[in-house]
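explain this:

___
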Amino acid sequence: MKLSVKQLIVVFVTMLATFALLRGAQWVYLTTAVKSPLVQTMGSIPGVERVSLTPNGEVTVVLNPSADLMTVYRQVEVVATQTLGHTPTGISMVNHANPALVQLANNVRFEVAQGEATGQYVAMKNQIQAMAAQSHSQATVELGNTHLYITLRQGSHVLYDVIPIVLGGGQHG
């Protein structure tokens, strides 16, 4: 059986139209059945100003200045997991940092690594707060089962850092 150019064009156009129709239906489904309810539910979490969801499943959250990072992060994680059926590929908090807070956060990472390696989390928290005070900032450090939640503030600037940890020291898996 020999196909003409006209038949090949018809097949190609039909395949392209089918693909476009299926992608459009997928987009409508994801927007109405997944993204809208997820964003709406997360938007009602106290401390959350705005939420967005990328097509690859990463959640981006804008917090209000008085939000408790640990509480919001955990609630966002639970809501995303319940709605998506799996943990999101990532949760990121939007920072409003200045260069001094970015530098402080970089220095804090060394303290976190040392605290995690030695298991001395109280000493780590005290050292982070002392470092923040030296740079005329405030630090809130909260320890969860799998993450360390650090909020650094300097005037109207804020930097949120959620660091995966292994309690009791050890290597990241």
